[in-house]
Each structure stands twice: as structure tokens, then as C-alpha cells.
Amino acid sequence: MTTATIPTYQNHIGGEWCDSASGVTFASTNPARESETLGYFQRSTPQDIDAAIRAAQAALPAWRATPAPERGEIILRAALLLEQRREDYARLLTREMGKVLKEARGDLQTAIDFGKFVGAAGRRAEGETVPSGIRDKICLTLREPLGVAGIITPWNFPLAIPAWKTFPALVAGNTVVLKPASDTPLLATKLVETLIDAGLPPGVLNLVTGPGGTLGDALVGDPRVAMISLTGSTEVGRHVAEICGRDLRRCALELGGKNAIIVMDDGNLDEAAAAAAWAGFGTTGQRCTATSRVIVHDAVVDAFNERLVALAKKQKLGEGLDPQIDMGPLVNRGRVSAVDAYMDVGKSAGARLSPGGRPARGGALDEGAFFEPTVFTDVTPDMRIAREEIFGPVVAVIPVAGYDEAIAVANSTEYGLSCAIFTENTRTAFRAMRDIQSGLIYINAGTTGAEPHLPFGGVKASGNGHRELGDTAIKEWSEVKTIFVSYPRV
Ligand code: NAD
User: Fold this and answer.
1) Are 262 and 421 in contact (CB under 8 A)?
2) Residue of 317, 293, 466, 274 lying closest to 382 (CA atoms)
3) CA triplet 154, 159, 164: central angle to 5 degrees?
């Protein structure tokens, strides 16, 4: 693409596409081929955030007065439009973020399925009607919107995550300021375009692109914003929670993970290795639910390692638009350096590297941010590679003596997002469901995979107790009002 044909995208504020007050733009590039620029985006300032919040406030009274079923129908129409646009958007997503096309289609499909699910929730945003303990009285609850919502999203699910926050916030009657990650502003822009095409009134959804630090602080720190929803790193989550906590505003945080698969001596090793490879190397290890530890019973660890290493060696790297490719690039070169730094950390702690461990080079790979699929074996739970979120295609295998040790190791990190166990023993499976400290648990499957009609989220430092998706989504985005009605005879 020549410079002349590269489009410049704008913020969307108060129903208008507009330039930032800064007059400065930044480029979004293809991490598989960095010479390709997908577009220029507004490098916005706190002034733009202020304008977006004012627009969202102005649109709030009419939007909250719009019947919830009508609000839901707009979301449903957006889901149907996304279905029509799925292939185009999936290809853009692969080019902007790097994940292979079949995963990009999955990203779109999650947004579509959830849009259909939550669109219908406009007709069933339930409260309770319960008997009173007092004669001639009835009690009920109503759900009300919170107000202006600030939504801050990461780059690893560039369409699904903005959709699964924005859709329920809107159905619940809030107006929104959306700040997407700077690595993937294009897909967030496409989502906003789709919602506008579906009939969303001006000012109800506002988009501001640009740097997380300054824009994030401006959005999070503004008392006119009733709730912040952030998906991102635990470090940024802590910062956001502190700011919201000072003036008691609600914030929903979906944060990092150090997800484990436990493989028991009676587990199916072929299935477990295939699951570890898919959950460890899929999306180049950049899913929040990616498997980055495999905790394996001593009795089967050699047989398991052999299988996992073979699968790691088979991964074909390249640009994800090619259907032959298994693993795309990391999202940018900075991430390559960050993942690479963990290689020495692991080796110097005594872990054995086999295979991988380097930025992937040669031919077309030189043009992008590629890293080899990597397996560390002989890892112990105290090593940093077993405790810290690496967010790349790196799997650490930790041998253990049995079930109790496996559970203790699985629970030993600060995170608690997703965990899996492979066992053929039903009793072991049920004990694991009870014993694992994690928001998501998988039995005989890898640590990834959400279904839009089920709650999604983590415990400990992986979140702050909120759940996205499922029936919980509308509840997240609304306030409960309890009403007591007395009707004694007069
Ligand atoms: P990040 O924390 O760097 O950024 C997330 C978002 O926060 C971006 O939009 C960024 O611009 C913004 N941001 C940065 N500084 C900010 C600040 N001071 N105030 C407010 N916002 C700020 O995370 P990332 O690198 O984009 O995403 C990867 C992380 O997200 C990983 O830790 C991953 O585990 C996590 N994640 C979690 C889930 C989940 O559901 N639990 C899902 C996807 C990703």
C-alpha cells in the first residue's frame, strides 16, 4: 500500500467523526509485515476525552428513557451486521493484530454470538418481586443504568472485548466512552461504525484513540464517569482501581493470568499435549487464558514432554492470512524483546529449553515480530517463568509427585483466571473443581475458550470479582433500586 492510499481514521464524538485537538496521528501496522500500515489514528489528548464525556452525558437522558427492548434491538442489528461483515473484519483483524485467520473469525464470532444473546436481554432485564414481611406491602427491585461508562480495552481480542463490554453497557442504558488499545484501533473503529449503522443515536457511543497512560488517567479520574471497565494487565488494573476507589466509583477489572493445565498419571497424554499446544501457542500465547504452565505427574512427564515438544516443533510460523500457518507474530517488536528477556531468566534459574527460545528469523519472518514456540522443562514453581505472565508462546512444564502437589502448585501464583486438569478419574475431576482457585475451570480441555452465555472472569489478581458475558453482564452495568410499596386499606 502506498502512503497516499493509507486512510486516516477519526475519533467519534457526539455523533461526529472528528480529528483530535492534538492534530497528531499515529500508525497502526501489521505485526507480520511491519512495512504495511493499515491506517493512521488520532493521538488524542485529555481534551478529547473531556469532549467525549460531555457528549456521553448529553446523550444519557434520551438513551436511558429509550425502552430497553429498543436498545437491545439496536445491539441485535449490530450483531447481524457483524455477521455480514465477518470475513472482511476477520481479515483486517489478522492484519492489524497478527492472530491467524481462523482465530480472527472466532474473535468476530464471539462478538456476534454475544450480541445476539445480550440484544435479547433488553426484553428480560429482570428485577425481583418478593413478598414483604409486613402486611399490605409488596417489595420489588428495578435495574437502572449507572450513567456514563468508560471502557478501556486491550489488543489481544481487538473486536470481541470491546463488543462484550460495550453491548451490555448500552443495553443496560448507559452511554459510553471507548478507549481501545493503540495496537488495534482499527477493529474498535469498525465496531463503532457497525453500531452506528445499526441505528445507535449520536453521543451514545464515543470513541477516542491514543495513549493509555494519559487518556486512561483522564477517563478513569473523571468523576462524571460512573463506571470504568478495563481489560488489561494486573499492573494497570491496580492503578485504575486505586483511582476509582478514592471516590468510590465502580470499576470492573479483567486482568492477567498464569494459567495451568494439570496432567495426572491417568490423563490422556495425546489430548493433554494437543490442548497445551493449542492453548499455549494459539494467538501466539497472547490470550489472557493462554496455558503458560503445565503441571505434570512425575510418572508421565517424559512421555508428555516428548509429545508437547513434537507439537511445538510442528508449528508453522508466518502471516496469519495464509491458511497453512499455525502461529502468527507477537503484536509488536516490543513484545518480542519482552518475551526474549524471559529466556535468560528461565535458563539461569536452571530450566531446560527445548525447543525454541529465540525471535524467529529467516525469509518473510524477518519482516515481522515473530518468536519461536518455546517449551521449558524441569521448571520449579518458584522460578519467575512459573510465576509471571510472559504473554508469548512459552510453556513451562513443572513435574509434581501427585494430586495434592499439583493443586498446591496450580494455586501458588498471584493469578486465578483459568485452569485445566486432564484425568480419566471422575473423583479426581470433581475434587479439582473444588480445589482449584480459578474463575474458569476446564476438565479434559485446554485453558482457553469462552462461551458468550456463561460468565467469564478470574479470582485473586486476575480481576476484582466482576464477571463479563452471560447473564451477569447486564447486572455489571446497572444499579439495583429496591422499592417498598405499602397499600393498607384507608
Ligand atoms: P495493558 O494493561 O497494557 O493495556 C490495556 C488497556 O489499558 C489499553 O487500552 C491501554 O492503552 C490502557 N492503559 C494503559 N495504561 C493505562 C492507565 N494508566 N490507565 C488506564 N488505562 C491504561 O494490557 P495489554 O498489553 O493491552 O493487554 C494484555 C493484558 O491484558 C494481559 O495482562 C492479559 O492477561 C490481559 N487480558 C485479560 C483478559 C481477561 O479477561 N482477564 C482478557 C484479555 C487480556
Assistant:
1) yes
2) 293
3) 85
Whose cell is 495434592? That residue is 404
The whole-angstrom distance between residue 17's C-alpha and the CA centroid of its chain comes to 26
Rg (CA), the chain: 23
Grid coordinates 524467529 are at which residue? Answer: 360
Q: Cα dihedral sign for 421, 426, 431, 433?
A: positive
pLDDT at residue 124, as a whole number: 84
254 is catalytic: yes
If you take atom 39 of ligand 1, which residue's CA is the nearest one? Answer: 254
Would you say 42 and 9 are in contact if contact means Cβ atoms under 8 Å apart?
Answer: yes
For a pocket test of ligand 1, which of 44, 97, 152 has the largest count of ligand atoms closer than 8 A to its C-beta? 152
Q: Where are the beta strands (DSSP E) in 11-147?
A: 11-13, 16-18, 25-30, 33-42, 129-131, 137-145
Rounded to the nearest angstrom, the distance between the alpha carbon of 181 and the centre of ligand 1 is 8
Burial of 189 (0-12, 13-18, 19+ CB in 10 A): buried
For residues 206-238, b (16+ Cβ closer than 10 Å) or e, as one string?
A: bbbbbebeebbbbbbbbeebbbbbbbbebebbe
CA of 212 to the centre of ligand 1 (A): 9
Q: From ligand 1's centre to the CA of 103, what distance in Å?
A: 20
Active-site choice (288, 319, 419, 468): 288
Nearest 5°: phi and psi at 485?
A: -115, 120
Q: How far apart are CA 29 and CA 369, in angstroms?
A: 11
Kindly give, in sequence order, each residue whose CB lies less than 8 Å from that of residue 173, ignoring residues fewer than 6 positions away: 63, 64, 66, 68, 71, 144, 145, 478
Q: How far apart are CA 35 and CA 311, in angstroms?
A: 31
Burial of residue 394 (number of CB atoms within 10 Å: 0-12, 13-18, 19+)? buried
Instruction: State the pLDDT at residue 37.
Output: 98
| Atom number of ligand 1 nearest to Cα 181 | 9
Which of 320, 282, 288 is closest to 92 using CA atoms?
320
Q: What angle do CA 336, 342, 343 make, to 5 degrees?
A: 95
Q: From CA 281, how far away is CA 339, in angstroms rounded?
A: 13
Atom of ligand 1 nearest to the CA of 180: 9
Ligand 1 centroid distance, CA of 141 (Å) = 34
Grid coordinates belonging to 143: 435495574
Pick out the chain residues at pLDDT < 70. 1-4
Residue 354 is predicted with a pLDDT of 86
Specify the residue for cell string 483486517.
92
